Amino acid sequence: MRERIDQLIAEIDSVKAVSLEEVEQLRLKYLSKKGLVSLLFEDFKSVPSEKKRETGQLLNDLKNKAQQKLDELKSGFGAKAEPGKSMLDLTRPVDQKVQGTRHPLSIVRNKIIGIFGRIGFTVADGPEIEDDWHNFSALNFTVDHPARDMQDTFFISENPDVLLRTHTSSAQIRTMETRKPPIRMIFPGRVFRNEAISARAHCIFHQVEGLYIDKQVSFADLKQTLMFFAKEMFGEHTKIRLRPSFFPFTEPSGEMDVSCNICGGAGCNICKHTGWVEILGCGMVDPNVLENCGIDSKVYTGYAFGMGIERITMLKYQIKDLRLFYENDVRFLRQFTGTF
Ligand code: DAH
Predict the structure, then answer these.
(1) DSSP of 53-67
(2) What is the predicted pLDDT for the residue at 81?
(3) CA–CA distance, 310 with 200 (Å, rounded to integer)
(4) CB count in 10 Å sphere of residue 215
(5) pLDDT attached to residue 98
(6) Residue owning the nearest CA to atom 2 of ligand 1
(7) How far apart are CA 208 and CA 168, in angstroms?
(8) Which atom of ligand 1 has the smallest separation from the CA of 166?
(9) Pocket around ligand 1: residues whose beta carbon is below 6 Å from it?
(10) pLDDT for res 49
(11) How many CB atoms lie under 10 A from the CB of residue 168?
């Protein structure tokens, strides 16, 4: 009996009809007085009494399923369900569909792409598995250069030339090697460093690199572009300041701070009571780097900058711990519903 019921459930589940007449045929086959389901009710009489309860339940389920299926097929042809027999309840509350959210890092990456897109920057990316030349040597990190210490990464022991890129700056090299100026591009992507995981550091994070190469590009252009970016990202009231710094591939180099958008510059924990938060490194591309990529440094100049998407996102949404980005805790992610 049990087997027969299961068999009929599966069978009814998969039936199809191309017309109302066919639905009627199905009704006759299964639910009419001499239908297959009704016949099972006849057999029910001979079921041993200790099994009656369970079998009765199954039979009723089968009958309800068959009726529901026929109603569905019927309504597909615009016909009404049989009054009093329909299992279809149109007044039932709708099923809640869970609304997915974009990850905060994707939201901010898209915002960055949008801001630079408005001033003519197109988007590209390079490989995450890099070689020494593109990640280090072409960017003036010669072998044994002390600046390599700050960007320890993951190597393949059999071939130390293969590594996971430590920054998106490698993508500017690949672009300059294959394109002729003018180049005005940004490179968002995932990067890797051999760092212990904490509230402020992770072995995987994200950067956006920017590059502009043309005739007569100056530091003033860089400053203007970065100011535009900061105001678009954090609001019109935002101030920027540039501090001298060092990167092997830019000369001169700088680091840019924005006025703290949490305390408005008055001083708080996030800005360590300075009123300023560092968000990126930048500078004029070193002529040697241009030459490494086959670009004539007597004709062309350019600027570059690189920022961490995590850092910008933490500042924008006042997130205090970087690990939240990677834990996939829906209580955290849900807060970004409706933000794009
Ligand atoms: N690649 C640097 C880093 O990861 C950031 C950076 C600094 C990128 C200056 C640049 C730049 O393009 O000009 O620390």
Answers:
(1) HHHHHHHHHHHHHHH
(2) 53
(3) 9
(4) 10
(5) 74
(6) 306
(7) 7
(8) 4
(9) 167, 169, 209, 247, 250, 281-283, 304-306
(10) 87
(11) 24
For a mutational test of ligand 1's pocket, the pick from 134, 243, 247, i.e. the residue with the most ligand atoms closer than 8 A to its C-beta, is 247
DSSP string of 13-52, one letter each residue: HT---SSHHHHHHHHHHHTSTTSHHHHHHHHGGGS-HHHH
Residue 96 neighbours by CB under 8 Å, 6+ apart:
none
Contacts 24+ apart (CB under 8 A), 244-249: 245/281, 245/283, 246/147, 247/147, 247/281, 247/283, 248/139, 248/140, 248/141, 248/145, 248/147, 248/286, 249/139, 249/140, 249/141, 249/169, 249/283, 249/285, 249/286, 249/289, 249/304
- How far apart, in whole angstroms, are the C-alpha atoms of residue 16 and residue 1? 25
- For residue 288, give the 3-state DSSP assignment: helix
| Rounded Cα distance, 340 and 324, in Å | 19
Nearest CA owner, ligand 1 atom 3: 167
Identify the three-state secondary structure at position 243. Answer: strand
pTM for this prediction = 0.73
pLDDT of residue 239: 95
- Report how far apart, in Å, the C-alpha atoms of 50 and of each of 53, 55, 56, 128 are: 7, 10, 11, 67
Give pLDDT, residue 177: 98
Rounded Cα distance between 316 and 327, Å, is: 19
Residues (pLDDT < 50) of the chain are: none
Cβ contact 184:120 at 8 Å: yes
* Residues sharing a CB contact under 8 Å with residue 246, sequence separation 6 or more, in sequence order: 147, 253
pLDDT for residue 275: 94
